[in-house]
Specification:
4-stranded antiparallel beta sheet, 1 helix, single chain, rod-shaped
Length: about 90
């Protein structure tokens, strides 16, 4: 979002606050303020570029656990198949 303000303001967004949000103002990370369950950021006077990005909390850990589970399942299946061939 491109913002041009005559004076510094607290800009409020009607998007629910969550730990997964990051905000940058002109490429620099800024603090997101939790305001009534929504998000707000302090924007100084002048022209600015404000960017919000969302990263799902626990996503990377979930992928790692899924991959490990798939590998364990594959090994277990291979052991069962190998045992059946021996018997």
């Amino acid at each position: 979002m491109q913002y041009g303000l005559q004076k510094g303001k607290l800009v409020w967004f009607s998007v629910p606050y969550d730990k997964g949000w990051d905000a940058t103002l002109d490429g620099k990370k800024i603090e997101i303020i939790k305001s009534a369950g929504m998000m707000a950021v302090k924007v100084p006077k002048g022209e600015h570029n404000l960017v919000f990005k969302y990263h799902t909390p626990g996503f990377k850990l979930g992928i790692i656990v899924s991959i490990i589970s798939f590998i364990v399942f594959g090994i277990y299946t291979a052991i069962l198949v190998f045992r059946k061939r021996i018997n």
